[in-house]
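Known limitations

Structure tokens in this collection are predictions and should be treated as such. Users comparing against experimental data should check residue numbering before alignment. To illustrate the layout, the record for Large ribosomal subunit protein uL29 is reproduced below. The input appears on top and the generated tokens appear beneath it.
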Amino acid sequence: MKAAELRQKDAAELNEMLLKLRKEQFGLRIQHANGTLNNRNEMRHVRRDIARVKTVLNQLQGKSA
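Generated tokens:
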């Protein structure tokens, strides 16, 4: 997921995406705790995607203020 793709979405879509990513992150944390996580890089990718979405949301809020 690239920031340019995220900038084309509106705030509602970004909030929905953020919720989905946080649920995915929670599931990965549970898998990691249980020892069933196969690819630990997924955790890093999800964490960085969350940061990208939050950054774009903050930029949108700055424009509207």
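For this record: The mean pLDDT is 93. Helices lie at 3-7, 11-34, 41-64. Please report discrepancies through the issue tracker.
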